[in-house]
């Protein structure tokens, strides 16, 4: 049976995409993703996982043309992409899209590092982001199953190919070079779900960014890959889906016929924890706000969500900040005790504090069996139920869209407040407002170097 020429079609799309072809709404979403990612990258720049990656690369960071986390240190582009990608994902504060992926945490570090190296303009960077996002979206849409439940972390396994598309576009690759870049990246893609809640998980984003960048460079240098590396029965999509849930046959649905950037958008995180906890956090904060709940008066908390959420929010007795990012028990206890879930709450001392540890065992999970198709395993809504020591049972509203979801977007002021808070948290000496404004007018930037001035 003849296979759809998916690899070639994607290569052609990447090579021929022009900035002028991108709808204005898609450009606006891309700028929002880039600005938000830079903010969370700054905030994550001093985290232990990032320090470990930088230390591991120490012999290779004596020089180079690309900035590490907008600070004074520089490194070869692939090293900067790896470090910056890790920093962008380490706090679990980066955006979400494409069936539970974190596209900006991979695409933005790869694009920034290569854009500095080749002197690309802001419009070039936006075009690269669109190429990477749309390629990622086309590929991840082809499986009817749930990649997370299979054990694959989509950010790592799809990020490498998405970053290859972005960097090939940035470098002005031919269609054949772009197709080779995708095939090369397919052989480097990885990331397993077992590492969620450990330092290796954010490195999935960094490695994907670096592998995509290098794949585009290798292709430009003449390295070849199978012309059907993506759709071959023993290729990328087939290997990720051994049960055969993936459609390798259908013709690709790519721009201009379909723009996933505008169709799906980006969910900008309001809280620095796994996104699957966000609807429940909003539900709890709503109860705190509307009912004046006091943590001392709470006897029990029940959260209702999907089986997939239960698998991923797996840390039921968190002891560290890393544990807490994947703990619904911590998320709800934090929202109740602090009235927020923020960067200052995701520290070991607060996780181990008496009010939090007292509430954690009072949280129980109730499973809603229905998972909506087309999602990465979301129930139609999440809710929280609280029983007080006086015997009263209070139920939250049914939360269908977390704050920051494309259906419940953050305001411009909220986006700036998050960026500013991230910059302050980083401790780096930079003009946060000037950087934020440059990123939000990126189409007027003549060179990536201007972002660092």
UniProtKB/TrEMBL annotation:
It holds the Pfam family MmgE_PrpD_N. It comes from Pigmentiphaga kullae. Residues 9-246 form the MmgE/PrpD N-terminal domain. Coiled coil: none annotated. SUPFAM superfamilies: 2-methylcitrate dehydratase PrpD. One of its GO terms (molecular function) is lyase activity. The lineage of its organism: Bacteria, Pseudomonadati, Pseudomonadota, Betaproteobacteria, Burkholderiales. Residues 271-423 form the MmgE/PrpD C-terminal domain. Belongs to the PrpD family. PANTHER family: 2-METHYLCITRATE DEHYDRATASE, 2-METHYLCITRATE DEHYDRATASE-RELATED. This is 2-methylcitrate dehydratase PrpD.
């Amino acid at each position: 049976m003849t296979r759809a020429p998916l690899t070639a079609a994607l290569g052609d799309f990447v090579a021929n995409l022009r900035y002028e072809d991108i709808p204005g709404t898609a450009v606006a979403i891309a700028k929002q993703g880039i600005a938000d990612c830079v903010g969370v990258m700054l905030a994550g720049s001093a985290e232990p996982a990032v320090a470990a990656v930088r230390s591991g690369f120490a012999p290779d960071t004596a020089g180079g043309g690309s900035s590490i986390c907008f600070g004074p240190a520089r490194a070869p582009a692939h090293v900067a992409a790896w470090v910056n990608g890790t920093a962008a994902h380490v706090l679990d504060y980066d955006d979400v899209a494409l069936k539970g992926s974190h596209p900006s945490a991979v695409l933005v570090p790869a694009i920034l590092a290569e854009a500095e190296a080749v002197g690309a303009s802001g419009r070039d960077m936006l075009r690269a982001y669109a190429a990477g996002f749309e390629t990622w979206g086309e590929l991840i849409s082809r499986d009817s199953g749930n990649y997370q439940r299979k054990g694959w972390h989509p950010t790592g396994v799809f990020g490498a190919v998405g970053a290859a598309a972005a960097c090939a576009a940035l470098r002005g690759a031919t269609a054949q070079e772009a197709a080779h870049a995708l095939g090369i990246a397919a052989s480097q893609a990885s990331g397993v779900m077992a590492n969620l809640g450990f330092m290796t998980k954010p490195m999935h984003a960094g490695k994907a960014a670096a592998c995509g960048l290098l794949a585009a460079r290798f292709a430009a240098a003449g390295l070849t890959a199978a012309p059907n590396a993506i759709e071959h029965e023993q290729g990328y999509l087939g290997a990720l889906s051994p049960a055969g849930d993936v459609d390798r046959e259908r013709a690709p649905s790519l721009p201009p016929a379909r723009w996933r950037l505008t169709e799906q958008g980006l969910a900008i995180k309001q809280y620095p924890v796994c996104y699957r906890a966000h609807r429940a956090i909003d539900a709890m904060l709503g109860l705190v706000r509307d009912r004046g709940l006091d943590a001392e008066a709470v006897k029990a908390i029940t959260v209702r969500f999907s089986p997939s959420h239960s698998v991923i929010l797996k840390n039921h007795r968190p002891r560290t900040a890393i544990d807490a990012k994947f703990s619904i028990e911590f998320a709800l206890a934090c929202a109740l005790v602090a009235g927020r879930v923020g960067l200052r709450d995701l520290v070991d001392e607060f996780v181990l504090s008496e009010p939090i540890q007292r509430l954690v065992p009072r949280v129980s999970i109730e499973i809603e069996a229905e998972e909506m198709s087309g999602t990465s395993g979301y129930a139609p809504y999440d809710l929280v139920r609280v029983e007080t020591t006086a015997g009263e049972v209070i139920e939250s509203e049914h939360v269908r869209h977390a704050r920051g979801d494309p259906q419940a977007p953050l305001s411009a002021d909220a986006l700036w407040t998050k960026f500013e808070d991230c910059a302050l948290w980083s401790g780096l000496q930079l003009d946060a407002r000037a950087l934020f404004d440059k990123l939000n007018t990126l189409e007027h930037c003549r060179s990536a170097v201007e972002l660092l001035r």
